[in-house]
Amino acid sequence: MVEFQASVTDMINEEPRTGLRPLKRSKSGKSVTQSLWLNNNVLNDLRDFSQVVSQLLEYPENLAWIDLSFNDLTSIDPVLTTFFNLSVLYLHGNSIQRLGEVNKLAVLPRLRSLTLHGNPIEEEKGYRQYVLCMLPRITTFDFSGVTKADRTTAEVWKRMNIKPRKPRLKQNAL
């Protein structure tokens, strides 16, 4: 019987599923991997995520792929932005409500592949264009390659829909 994880801390006592390749472990017993697949659980937040990842992985700073698809996440937790080597992030099939949540991911310099389909935000007008505007470095979005035409459409959409921020003037500048 497969037990679904309701919290990130539940991972500590779980044995990882076996894949095609055997799991490598360090001398300290921690996993030596660059991917973490937490898909198909009932996670609704990422409380203690950094601490748990540090307990489980020998080199958490090398984490390049996180799969959190098919959980109950309602937002993009800022903890994900602390993994600067992250290049693949799967968040499809969750409950993310606000399109603006995507903005948090703009600080990830290596993010190239992102999935968000199957979240309520997918129904927002301009969903694909907004994501491509906010994350111009991604090359695959919702398992579909990002084309030059997509980039052009996103740029036009941005000019029509996103107002440039006006610089704030200091009130005591006079």
Automatic annotation (TrEMBL):
Subcellular location: Cytoplasm
InterPro entries per UniProt: Leu-rich_rpt, LRR_dom_sf
PROSITE patterns to which the protein is assigned, alphabetical: LRR (PS51450)
Keyword Cell division: no
Residues that span the membrane, as ranges: none
Domain of life: Eukaryota
CC terms in the record's Gene Ontology section: cytoplasm
Keywords annotated in UniProt: Cytoplasm, Leucine-rich repeat, Repeat
Protein name: Leucine-rich repeat-containing protein 51
Species this protein is from: Oryctolagus cuniculus (Rabbit)
